[in-house]
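Example 3.2
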Amino acid sequence: MWHKIIGGVLLITGVSVGAGMLVLPIYTGAYGFQSSVVLLFGCWFVMTLSAYFMLEVSLWMPLHTNLTTMLRKTLSLPMQIIVWFAYLILLYALMTVYFEGLGGILSEFFRNTFHLHLPYWSVVLFTAVLFMVFIQAGAKAVEPLNRFLIIFMLGIFIVLVSSITHHVNVRMFEHPYHWQIWYVMSLGIAAFSYHVIIPSLRDYLGGNIKALRITIFLGGLIPLVMYLVWEAVVLGIIPMQGKLGLNALAEYHATAPVLARVLSHLLNQPGFSIGFRLFSFFAISTSALGFGLAIYDFLADAMFTRKSITSQIVVPVLAFMPPFLFATYFPGRFEKLLEYSGFFSTLLFVFLPALMVWRGRYYTYIPSNYRVCGGRLMLLIPTLVTVAVVVFQFFSFIR
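Structure, written as tokens:
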């Protein structure tokens, strides 16, 4: 069972640690390292709690069911429809951006390495078909590939960080705590949004409650450590002020490649950008695998089929062809939506699990052999956090 737990932990890590983690210091760095640490620990606690709520609801259902069945058993029809479409749009948006990112990296690789100038659409199509083949086979096929990618990703991350830690100036951590850090709380929540694969993990681990609890805890802990280390490295090297400072990068909404170029310039290490691109490739790939598995299982559950011809052909097409078409013909259109991914993640992965648990426990009285401790009081935490995110999101717009 332990080899499966490790596989599940790496799946959660892969989903959480997308390329977005690399720009996290840009938006949190302006508030200082101490504030960033408080934010990350707070978001990790809330998302771990909500993940256990999601697990509780998943365990109420038969094996091989996903969010559609969970919604149908706990919420009213109008709420089901709203959540269904919001969930699908978010997953499609994420997969579109992942396909765009992988398509760009692979196109550059073929051009620079083999002098092949392949059409962009062909590279994205190759990526989409490759994902269809692996994910159609389920978590048992995805897990070994994800394990391979994660090992390389962690190895590159360790090399990147260890190569520049001697440049870190700990005196730059002395900025006092700023409560305004909570204006970007939704970004911290998005950094731990692995809840989409919990139903798939439940199937992969055979409903073993102890193994699932350990997997969720460790799977969320590894990204937390990586985020803290990356925050320390970036905030200990890049100053707050100046043309290349964190405030300027945040003001211009700098991307991960821009951050890599800034670090390369400050450290005078041109090779850093190459390693950074490699890490981005593996980080995007592991996240795309996890979200791809989630969208496949979600659609299969919605269509009440898994081993039929429909499941084998129609579901993969519905899962990956729309992101391929959007990435090919409407590149960049979903990036604006992803700016609000933290807000969507809060509603879908913080508030929704608590709402389903509340209705399942105290309204429909669904029998269960697993219950998150704390009763009604613990269920109030995700609700209060959701309200706080909505309030801070509103004030961040009008500032």
